[in-house]
Amino acid sequence: MQCVTSKILSVCDLGEEYYRIILERPENMVFSPGQFVSVMDQNSPDLLRRPFSVASQTQREILLLIKEVGKMTKRLRKSSPGDCLSVMGPLGKGFDTSEQKKALLIGGGVGIAPLLGLSQELDAQGRDYLCLLGFRDECEPAKLFKKTNLRIHRETKEPGFVTDLLKEVLQEGVEVFACGPLPMLKAVRSMCMEAGVPSQLSLEEKMACGIGACIGCAVPVKNNSGTVYKKVCSDGPVFRGEELAWE
Q1: pLDDT in tens, 78-135
Q2: What CATH number is given to the structural domain containing 212?
Q3: Total-model pTM
Q4: Which one, of 200, 179, 184, 145, lies nearest residue 36 by Cα?
Q5: Paired strand residues for 221
Q6: Domain match, 23 and 38 both
Q7: How many domains does the chain have?
Q8: CATH number of the structural domain spanning residue 63
């Protein structure tokens, strides 16, 4: 983990709610799909950083896909090329891509961010996969993905939820990777366990420190002695579906 100053290269709107920021990738800061950074803008009045999934990376750049939901994300949206951010990372545990099963990627809203880098990693491995993405309104962020192997569900035009797409394609011999709102993740976990399909879920939680010190993002996890609590920021954000102690 490093804490460095990184220059903003570009800011681009992706519809009404979403935008992307491209940063200079600090030297020796390499991310696995599903890991994140903790960010603070210059002269910020906030006491705490904000966590953002690294959506993708090149040798010299990292891409953050952000939804405007509060004061800091509003300020970041108004940033200009050349502005600098304090960036701490890489943080957290990402997706395990060691299996060679067909992968089903399912994301809702800004939860699609870590799935972009994951899809690029699967492309590099030559693995077969399908992306299922859901949005309430517009789907501009989905344009970052390849059109092949991609299905989009818009809740304003189609009844139901993105998990309805998963029902259509879920079968034995696949592995599911998901990120999105908690109700969606719980539904994905339930469907996968019922079908006997392994799943990896990237959890979205509010984080104060991002490094496991404050224990503010703990979630219940099963182990041999019962239920324990693990921290989303350092033990996750990716957890196996079957290990989460959700009802």
Answers
A1: 999 999 999 999 999 999 999 889 999 999 888 899 999 999 999 999 999 999 998 7
A2: 2.10.240.10
A3: 0.93
A4: 179
A5: 228, 244
A6: yes
A7: 3
A8: 2.40.30.10
Residue where a domain stops, chosen among 49, 73, 91: 91
CA angle (136 as vertex; 134, 140 as ends), nearest 5: 70
Q: Which residues contact 43 (CB under 8 A, 6 or more apart)?
A: none
Say if residue 244 is in the same domain as residue 177.
no
**23 and 84 in contact (C-beta within 8 Å)?**
no
On whether the CB atoms of residues 29 and 101 are closer than 8 A, the answer is no
**52: its two tokens:** 């953002």
State which residues form the domain around 175.
95-204
Residues 6+ away with beta carbon under 8 Å from 70: none
